[in-house]
Write a structure and sequence with these properties.
- The protein has 757 residues and is an alpha/beta fold.
- Helices cover 38% and strands 21% of the residues.
- It contains 27 helices and 31 strands.
- Helix 26 packs across helix 27.
- The chain is elongated, with a radius of gyration of 30 Å.
- The termini are far apart.
């Protein structure tokens, strides 16, 4: 038969309707909302090629090409496509296709209804292969004459250079790969995108959803960096929301043709999908996965309030294995940041490709950098060691193909083509979405960190958290199994930016400062979500600030450790503190409600009160919208801790490094008195014990995040005092957890013995 309606097809009909057509038939029969349509069958294409006598011509051309010669491949592809487009279609085929289109128009009650015409190769959308984007799609086709024209163009697209290359590389015989054509009622989408029913890199049971304004073409093509959402399928909880700057969209012009336009300024950074829409999508994803019995890659669209599924296929990049790079890390200066689209670490020379004619410059082992990846780039991608793009999301075509080919890929960087220099060496981390300066040696993680996974988990009532100074260290810290972050230092985020926070504000770049903080903190919150992350507001001494751009006006203090730092400085410069509060508020609004705020170096409850007032001024209410805590680093705070508790605090963290130096009058950075510095001094331990016990009486969480939290025999004492959590350096977490467990068991044993006496 020349044509088949969706209702008459199912997933076993790939030989008839291709992967796309067969799956649309399957979804239709399963009751999933799919815009109606029909398929011009693969048999029709085959009969056209044979009856017109052009099949042998095409195969002769294919036999003579070298697929690794990009220019020769492109020339051969153009020659074959011209032959197909210029060959008339037999009259009987035209009659059946036009009749099917007219019946579709009658069904939807529209004259010359707009349709999407999509290629559907008979080997595509199979579990072992992904033909995504290799053949063409044409949108807003109207009228039976145009339908005929674009069906033929779809047939010709079976011989795009990218498709020829892919078949050769994957040993698909050209003569055995046929093409069907899907003709489907256009969904005039207000918003559209892609949904994986599991995480495509890890197989984790979350719905990973990407969406943007207008038609879905912007997302799958990589023209836009879409919003990214993650939904826990067990309870439909939205666990991550990342809002992107969506610069372009596809919509209709006056004639109904699909065109790319700029997104209106007020919608560029507006969230595309509500929680309710995400849940509706997730429920549909669960239905589809249950129906097929395997994880699926789908395309969706909302037309006003109506959700439609436009496509479904098995995810082709899941093999059940753990990514090899999980134990690796990279050190160095981060040049650009984006989304980790395909895991792995790659090194090589930067080759910037701004036009399809430049693909020949990509040699084996180069890092390909481009504005947006397209299917035409697949041959060059195959030669590259890694891929970096300005635009695109983790569900775009290039991300899918990179994962399938096992090539590390970072997408959505925003400016990689401008920030990276041609022929310079770089190292990219496709899991974290980072590109580093230089060809960096990959370092294996510390054995004690990796060994945790092999051991039986140690369960403790006292939580063991990690101290994190730099976002890049968050992944490694999270892999230790830490129960959260007890101290996230802000200072290194500022020092890495290289610009004094006051300069941002003086230059009218407050939003840039907020984004800098938010982007860096988000990396840590992502790594640990939903475990708590305690963000400590800025506490850089003046001798550190003075080195930054704009820091030339910093005061020169005789002893910066005792000087203008911590909350005392931030209350003098409230605009900086407000920017920090706005950054954390922004992350909370994205769904990162696991972040709490704590103020450093307080000596009076009045400082805590004022800080909370400033937080409320930015529309972020302490204790209601966000957990608000404090550091205890000054003896005065430990001595009057009960007064702080009366003012109201959600958690307290003991900073033993400063508490020790201030109690003993020992500058911890002074080599002449370093031998007198010890956290175990009786006066220091009494202040620690007092704080812990007062917090326990008030029912307030109390942690410790100084160096003392990494010393096993001190940790044992802290557990006896009633500490709620211990936060240590990442490399000490395994030993600290063992120490905590032993201390807890010892307390239980001693209590049991007393009852027996």
């Amino acid at each position: 038969m020349y044509v088949q309606k969706f209702e008459d097809l199912n997933k076993s009909d790939i030989a008839i309707a291709g992967g796309k057509g067969a799956n649309l038939g399957e979804l239709t029969q399963a009751g999933i909302p799919v815009p109606p349509g029909f398929v011009v069958t693969a048999e029709t294409y085959q009969k056209f090629m044979e009856d017109t006598g052009i099949n042998d011509k095409v195969l002769d051309i294919l036999d003579k090409i070298d697929i690794n010669d990009t220019k020769a491949l492109q020339a051969a592809a153009e020659e074959i496509k011209s032959i197909i487009i210029e060959t008339p279609i037999p009259d009987d085929m035209i009659m059946f296709i036009k009749e099917a289109y007219n019946q579709l128009c009658q069904r939807v009650g529209e004259d010359d209804t707009d349709v999407a015409i999509r290629s559907s190769a008979t080997a595509e959308d199979l579990p072992e292969a992904s033909f995504a984007g290799q053949q063409d799609t044409f949108l807003h086709v109207s009228g039976d004459e145009e339908v005929i024209e674009y069906v033929r163009k779809c047939w010709a697209s079976l011989f795009e250079a990218r498709a020829i290359f892919y078949r050769e590389e994957n040993d698909f015989e050209h003569s055995k790969v046929l093409i069907a054509v899907v003709v489907q009622k256009m969904a005039i989408a207000d918003k559209a995108g892609v949904m994986f029913t599991v995480n495509p890199s890890t197989g984790e049971e979350i719905a990973l959803i990407e969406g943007s304004w207008g038609l879905g073409e912007a997302v799958v093509s990589g023209d836009v960096t879409p919003d990214n959402y993650q939904v826990d399928k067990k309870n439909n909880e939205v666990i991550n929301v990342t809002i992107s700057d969506k610069k372009v969209m596809y919509t209709n012009d006056e004639s109904g043709t699909s065109i790319k336009v700029d997104v209106p300024e007020d919608k560029r950074n507006e969230r595309v999908l509500s929680d309710e829409e995400l849940i509706e999508l997730t429920e549909m994803g669960k239905r589809v996965q249950a129906h097929y019995g395997e994880p699926m890659d789908t395309e969706w669209a909302f037309e006003r309030d109506n959700l439609f599924l436009l496509q479904a296929r098995p995810i082709t990049t899941l093999d059940g294995s753990k990514p090899a790079e999980d134990g690796d890390s990279v050190d160095g200066e981060v040049l650009v940041r984006g989304l980790g689209a395909s895991p792995g670490i790659a090194t090589g020379l930067v080759k910037i490709v701004l036009d399809i004619d430049e693909l020949d410059k990509i040699e084996e082992g180069d890092v390909m950098v481009t504005t947006m990846t397209t299917p035409d780039m697949v041959p060059a991608m195959r030669r590259a060691s890694g891929i970096v793009t300005d635009e695109g999301g983790v569900t775009c075509h290039a991300s899918i193909i990179s994962r399938e080919l096992g090539i590390p890929c970072v997408v959505g960087t925003g400016d990689a083509t401008k920030a990276l220099e041609e022929n310079t060496g770089v190292t990219l981390d496709g899991k974290k979405g980072l590109v580093f300066e230089g060809i960096t040696e990959v370092k294996e993680e510390a054995p004690q960190v990796q060994a945790i996974a092999a051991e039986a988990p140690i369960l403790t009532v006292t939580e063991v958290k990690a101290n994190v100074s730099m976002p890049e260290a968050a992944g490694r810290a999270a892999e230790t199994g830490a129960d959260g972050v007890g101290l996230l230092r802000t200072e290194h985020l500022m020092l890495t930016a290289g610009v004094h926070p006051g300069k941002f504000i003086a230059d009218g770049k407050e939003d840039e400062l907020i984004d800098t903080i938010a982007e860096n903190v988000q990396i840590v919150a992502d790594a640990f979500y939903p475990k708590p992350v305690w963000y400590r507001t800025l506490d850089a001494p003046t001798d550190e600030f003075i080195t930054l751009e704009g820091g030339e006006n910093e005061p020169r203090e005789h002893n910066p450790m005792l000087g203008w730092r911590g909350i005392r400085r931030e209350l003098d410069q409230p605009e900086i503190l407000k920017c920090e509060f706005k950054a954390i508020k922004k992350l909370h609004e994205k769904g990162y409600t696991n972040i709490g705020i704590m103020i450093p170096l307080s000596q009076s409850p009045a400082e805590l009160v004022k800080a909370k007032e400033l937080c409320a001024e930015v529309g972020f209410i302490p204790h209601k919208d966000v957990d608000f805590g404090m550091m205890v680093e000054i003896p005065a705070a430990a001595i009057i801790i009960d007064e702080y508790l009366k003012v109201g605090v959600d958690f307290v963290s003991l900073g033993t490094n400063d508490l020790t130096q201030y109690t003993l009058a020992v500058d911890r950075n002074n080599e002449f008195v370093a031998k007198h510095y010890t956290e175990e001094h009786p006066a220091v331990m009494k202040l620690i014990e007092r704080t812990i016990r007062k917090c326990a009486e008030a029912g307030v969480t109390c942690s410790i995040c100084g160096q003392a939290g990494s010393v096993p025999h001190i940790v044992e004492k802290l557990v006896k005092f009633g500490i709620t959590s211990v936060s240590s350096n990442a490399d000490a977490i395994a030993e600290v957890r063992k120490t905590v467990a032993r201390a807890e068991q010892k307390i239980i044993l001693e209590a049991a013995r007393k009852r027996l006496e």
